[in-house]
Specification:
It contains eleven helices and no strands. It is mainly alpha-helical. The chain folds into two domains: 75 residues, SP0561-like (Orthogonal Bundle); 150 residues. The two termini are 33 Å apart.
Length: 232
């Protein structure tokens, strides 16, 4: 599927309910954009305008989640609002740390209850280190990258920092979840409840997929948008 065909699939005139039905992950996009359910038969544009959201920005993020490999054109980026992109990323950080990570942590705890102390410690230590790594990654963006973007929006001097530096040092925080999946699938003993292991794996896969899309939004949307603003 080409970028152009993808672009026409998601249009402001389509019903919001029809859009949500394309991929269940778009439900998360809706809430993190500050939009609410109960939109009735409203179109994407109607629901977004009512909620004070730029429809083109909303659809751009939905494209990333709905279509693997989607990369926006310059024309698409020019129609989006970089401030709303940052707001979305900020809300995503809160969702990951306050909801997704907590759900996964609880699922892992239930899973390891029948295990011996050694295996429990391995899982807890590994996941604890991952949570700390994820938290530091988000703190870097919250304390340096996002304020810098706002300074560029306000035409202020950015000092020694640039969005190119962020791009070069940007890490993929979902990669370590691959190791956690392997621990659960390959090395958990038979005493573990299969349903609890399934739930833990479900949360791992869900978080990994969401973080991967999150990285695409940062690398393929935020970075080029801010980079163009820097030059202008």
């Amino acid at each position: 599927m080409t970028q152009n065909s993808e672009r026409y699939l998601l249009s402001p005139s389509m019903k919001m309910a029809e859009l949500m039905d394309i991929d269940f992950s778009l439900l998360g996009v809706l809430t993190r954009m500050g939009l609410s359910f109960g939109f009735g038969e409203g179109t994407v544009e109607e629901v977004c305008r009512k909620g004070g959201v730029n429809p083109e920005t909303f659809l751009l993020i939905c494209q990333v989640y709905a279509y693997d490999g989607y990369r926006p054109t310059r024309q698409v980026l020019e129609q989006a609002d970089v401030k709303e992109i940052v707001n979305y990323l900020h809300r995503s950080h809160a969702y990951y740390m306050e909801v997704a990570v907590k759900e996964l942590s609880d699922a892992l705890e239930r899973m390891v209850q029948p295990c011996d102390g050694r295996r429990q410690d391995i899982i807890r230590k590994f996941f604890g280190e991952y949570k700390e790594e994820l938290s530091k990654h988000f703190e870097y963006e919250e304390n340096l990258v996002f304020p810098y973007v706002y300074s560029v929006l306000g035409h202020a001097q950015g000092g020694q920092f640039s969005i190119g530096e962020y791009e070069q040092n940007h890490s993929n925080v979902e990669e370590k979840l691959e190791d956690l999946k392997s621990l659960v699938m390959k090395y958990m003993p038979s005493q573990c409840d299969p349903q609890e292991a399934y739930k833990a794996l479900f949360y791992i896969y869900s978080l990994e997929q969401d973080l991967r899309k999150h990285t695409v939004i940062e690398d393929e949307i935020l970075v080029p948008m801010v980079g163009r603003m820097e030059h202008e």
